[in-house]
């Protein structure tokens, strides 16, 4: 049985794409006879506060689903103050260093990036000719931060670029969730070994018989992080509600603004449902006509994992983010595309959707496409050949 260690900043019971992605990877490797260990902070995302069940703990080690999970101390914060966010990342990096000093580390290590500083700490301390380091890159930082307006091209940005390049240079294999990520890596290090590792979900597609298009207004849903990048607050303000009832699930930085907006505009057909478990969310989602997958700005390298998850649910999509995600929607005929950042285009696209486009046969076709082209097990088997 081959040992493998996964280092990540997100892991269940935390919710979200990053947590689900790493959990499925760990679970998949364990089922393929790997002895899997996970290093992760005490759960705190997305609230920026240590979850109630873990408060007062400095470290906790448990075995869940035959996976050894080491949860380490972190100064948790989701503050908009950059210094506090930096302190939070540095605190987890400190805990990692302490763990590396006092524990035997596997010969194969998968490191999640971003956060860049956490990945940098892991690569710096663990690089060795006797150890295989694999960097799993889900977003391109600091480029994504620049496009989101979080960074400016100054000394700090140049320092982050150097850290990014250090991470790529000193690992054996780079996994990227998009072709854009892999193209960026190989533009810097042409000989670097890379592998396209999409965020495919691992669940049995639900039975969707009986799902039909709503009569009257279209029941449109967004489910996920209510963060700055997704722009759900602006979406609430810009949607044309004459033919749309908008449902929202999730939590995050914009949650309070969204709830206040809904309260102040009762005439708008918006319903906020809060956060629910992933299983219950899947049950709820198949009852909607379609979903919107938005990005406030087109982010180079980003492909929302929602595309693959919703395809497996048979849920038609309106994609509103540009880039590689838009190409996937078009290539596999998963729904409709609106011009990124153009809310007039979005409303026009939604207004032209016919009820016949949302019928059962179309949903069944989407599920079939997902099972054929977005198969988690096939992808994992290909990855294992490279580990």
UniProtKB/TrEMBL annotation:
The keyword Ribonucleoprotein does not apply. It comes from the Bacteria. Keywords: Membrane, Transmembrane, Transmembrane helix. The chain crosses the membrane at residues 83-102, 108-126. It holds the Pfam family Glycos_transf_1. The keyword Membrane applies. Residues 218-370 form the Glycosyl transferase family domain. This is Glycosyltransferase family 4 protein. It comes from Flavivirga aquimarina.
């Amino acid at each position: 049985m081959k040992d493998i260690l996964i280092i990540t900043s997100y892991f269940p019971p935390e919710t979200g794409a990053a947590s689900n992605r790493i959990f499925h990877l760990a679970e998949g490797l364990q089922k393929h006879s790997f002895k899997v260990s996970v290093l992760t902070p005490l759960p705190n995302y997305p609230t920026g506060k240590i979850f109630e069940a873990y408060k007062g703990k400095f470290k906790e080690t448990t075995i869940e689903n035959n996976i050894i999970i080491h949860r380490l101390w972190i100064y948790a914060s989701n503050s908009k103050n950059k210094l506090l966010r930096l302190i939070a990342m540095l605190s987890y990096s400190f805990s990692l260093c302490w763990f590396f000093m006092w524990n035997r580390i596997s010969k194969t290590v998968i490191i999640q990036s971003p956060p860049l500083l956490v990945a940098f700490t892991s690569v710096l301390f663990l690089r060795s000719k006797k150890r295989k380091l694999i960097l799993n890159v889900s977003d391109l930082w600091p480029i994504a931060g620049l496009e989101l307006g979080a960074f400016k091209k100054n000394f700090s940005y140049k320092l982050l670029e150097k850290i990014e390049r250090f991470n790529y240079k000193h690992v054996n294999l780079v996994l990227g969730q998009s072709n854009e990520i892999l193209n960026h890596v190989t533009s810097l290090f042409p000989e670097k070994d890379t592998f396209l590792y999409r965020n495919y979900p691992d669940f049995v597609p639900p039975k969707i018989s009986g799902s039909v298009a709503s009569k009257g207004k279209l029941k449109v849903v967004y489910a996920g992080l209510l963060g700055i990048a997704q722009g759900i607050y602006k979406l609430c303000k810009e949607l044309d509600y004459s033919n749309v009832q908008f449902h929202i699930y999730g939590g995050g930085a914009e949650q309070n603004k969204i709830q206040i907006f809904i309260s102040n505009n009762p005439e708008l057909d918006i319903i906020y449902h809060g956060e629910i478990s992933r299983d219950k969310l899947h049950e709820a989602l198949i009852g909607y006509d379609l979903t919107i997958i938005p990005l406030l700005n087109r982010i180079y390298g980003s492909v929302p994992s929602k595309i693959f998850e919703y395809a497996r649910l048979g849920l038609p999509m309106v994609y509103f983010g540009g880039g590689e995600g838009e190409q996937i929607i078009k290539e596999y005929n998963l729904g409709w595309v609106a011009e990124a950042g153009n809310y007039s285009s979005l409303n026009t696209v939604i207004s032209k959707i016919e009820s016949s486009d949302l019928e059962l046969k179309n949903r069944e076709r989407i599920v079939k496409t997902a099972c054929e082209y977005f198969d988690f097990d096939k992808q994992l088997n290909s990855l294992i050949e490279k580990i």
